[in-house]
Amino acid sequence: MDLPFIVATLTRRGLLTPGRPIRVASQLGALRKWGWSLAGELRQAAARDPGRAAVVDEQGVELTYQELLDRAERLARSMRAGLGVQAGDRIGVLCRNHHGLIEAVVAAMLLGADAVLVNTGLSAAQLTTVAEEQSLRVLVHDAEFAERVLGLPADVQRVDERGQEELIAGALPGDQLQPPERDGRTIVLTSGTTGAPKGARRPTPHGFGPLVSIIDRIPLHARDTVLIAAPLFHTWGYAALQVAFALRSTIVLHRRFDPAATVAALAAQPCDALFAVPVMLQRLLEVPAPSPRPPLKVVAVSGSALPGGLAPKFMDAYGDVLYNLYGSTEVSWASIAGPADLRAAPTTAGRPPHGTRLEILDDAGEPVRDGRVGRIFVGNEMLFEGYTSGAGRETHDGLLNTGDLGRVNGDGLLFVDGRADDMIVSGGENVFPSEVEDLLARLPQVREAAVIGVPDPEYGQRLAAFLALHPGETLDPDAVREYVRHYLARFSVPRDVIFVKYLPRNATGKVLSRELRRYYG
């Protein structure tokens, strides 16, 4: 990425404003010594703005950047002295959104250990599998998960919230931490919507490039107040945390997402930005609209596709502040859609940001024409380093296969048609469930919709639609089928229309297709 672009972007976002020389020097020294990991970003923020509020929780308790760094350093020293954690070990972190998760991840990186971000929605059996596959040395967990971790292997040391506080309080003075011989990595577990989650090794940034790619397109500024509602263990929530530290933001965290509490916090703090997943926006629209509007400049979402009609509906309520980032654990980001893009085409994934390459390729690896569906390949500075199992992903000319199918229109906007393995063949026709989902989501009676492929003895596969309706609403299955038939081809009409109270989702808001298939069976 070219230096003039980096400097111009950092200047626009307020990161190159003058400061006290000794603090600026300390800030740059921290980055030079510790790098751009989460630990390095926390150190640079504490060096430049030590007294600024770093984290505020739902009870209003706050920690400054210096206090947060001190706690993470004390935890790291106690982990090394008391638990024997060394560079190369793996520390699992099973926490909701609060400062304890941040302290545990930073402590691991200060020691050169890998932090494994564990999905809070995993079952006890899945936790045991993750602990074994990731060779966890320690698991830091919230008190609420005490029973769920009982079955972990005996050699995994467990540290609950009380134990974490005791380690922080009992840290011996002195014993200054030095940069480890190896950089600690962050390992994010894939969503596991169709099977067991896999560990994906996330790279450490090597400069300002990744930050600049994001904030050039999403107008976040230094010292913004940011509410991160997306789970921090998820790629998007963790990316929001990295960006917030780089901007020396005040971060507002709630352990659980509650739409009414979120609306109240956006106004009370007050917040400049909100990081969320799309289903959270749907929930925000179900509570009374705030008056006056919260002073939001940015609402940034990622993690799953925006349902049809959600973008304009949300912007009508909260203003043209919505930014949709399309990416994955493996490729980080691929494209970003801004408010103007979403007004013009509500289901678009936008355009690649600066420094990102995006190609739509056929099965032979050749580019397809505009408007034609193909496989989405992406290249940028933050492609993952492979799965912890040793497996990788298909690459082509330095680009990584996202596993999604999509197309680019004549204006350069990307549209994602869905996972390649979600596409079904019904009677010889290729059908994308996401197209039908978007259409059904526009029905005023429908709260949320999901469409999957199920076996069919005559056509090979057919579509089944699962609809959760708003309270008090009703729909007739035949009317639903006729509605789809009016807008789409006959092979896109769901043969089965099933009404459910709610759609099964994981902790990041993605619909669990395997649960729907089990329900159907």
Automatic annotation (TrEMBL):
Pfam families xref list: AMP-binding (PF00501), AMP-binding_C (PF13193)
Gene3D superfamilies cross-referenced by the UniProt entry: 3.30.300.30, N-terminal domain of ligase-like
Residue ranges of every copy of the AMP-dependent synthetase/ligase domain listed in the record: 43-387
Keyword Ligase: yes
Keywords: Ligase
InterPro entries the UniProt entry points to: AMP-bd_C, AMP-bd_C_sf, AMP-binding_CS, AMP-dep_synth/lig_dom, ANL_N_sf
Top-level taxonomic group: Bacteria
Family per record: Belongs to the ATP-dependent AMP-binding enzyme family.
Identification of the protein by name: AMP-binding protein
Organismal lineage: Bacteria, Bacillati, Actinomycetota, Actinomycetes, Micromonosporales
